[in-house]
Amino acid sequence: MGRMHAPGKGLSQSALTYRRSVPTWLKLTSDDVKEQIYKLAKKGLTPSQIGVILRDSHGVAQVRFVTGNKILRILKSKGLAPDLPEDLYHLIKKAVAVRKHLERNRKDKDAKFHLILIESRIHQLARYYKTK
């Protein structure tokens, strides 16, 4: 998908391996991974943070290949999914930070312009999630 408020075309992306089977060296079972996900979600971590921890600490490259489901779907089935979608939450957090900056620096026209862009992205995402 292209960029909304930038000139770039957004072509770069990480390349996933074609092989979708579980690596032979991974000793964790599907249930072990799910238990780890539940434990980390109860600590208040987002699905992407959970994925990073599982990748770095437990050697699970792709949760979907091990469990058959994505992290968010696993959390939804257990009722542990976050109230706000993660991308929308981070955009709102960014908009709040820029607003706070604008309270202190009223003449910052650049920040004011970028706040408008951030808020339009928030509205775009909200519209997407309402239809979904």
From TrEMBL:
Indicate the secretion signal residues. none
| Any GO MF annotation of the entry | small ribosomal subunit rRNA binding
**Pfam families attached here?**
Ribosomal_S13_N (PF08069), Ribosomal_S15 (PF00312)
One Gene Ontology term of the biological-process aspect is:
translation
Instruction: Name the SUPFAM superfamilies on file.
Output: S15/NS1 RNA-binding domain (SSF47060)
Alphabetized UniProt keyword annotations: Ribonucleoprotein, Ribosomal protein
As for what it does, the entry says: Component of the small ribosomal subunit. The ribosome is a large ribonucleoprotein complex responsible for the synthesis of proteins in the cell. Part of the small subunit (SSU) processome, first precursor of the small eukaryotic ribosomal subunit. During the assembly of the SSU processome in the nucleolus, many ribosome biogenesis factors, an RNA chaperone and ribosomal proteins associate with the nascent pre-rRNA and work in concert to generate RNA folding, modifications, rearrangements and cleavage as well as targeted degradation of pre-ribosomal RNA by the RNA exosome.
Q: What name appears for this protein in its UniProt entry?
A: Small ribosomal subunit protein uS15
What CDD domains does the entry give? Ribosomal_S15p_S13e
**What PANTHER family would the database entry show?**
RIBOSOMAL PROTEIN S15P/S13E (PTHR11885), SMALL RIBOSOMAL SUBUNIT PROTEIN US15 (PTHR11885:SF6)
| Cellular component terms per the entry's GO annotation | cytosolic small ribosomal subunit; nucleolus
Is NAD one of the keywords?
Answer: no
- Annotated Small ribosomal subunit protein uS15 N-terminal domain residues: 1-60
Q: Which InterPro entries match?
A: Ribosomal_uS15, Ribosomal_uS15_arc_euk, Ribosomal_uS15_N, uS15_NS1_RNA-bd_sf
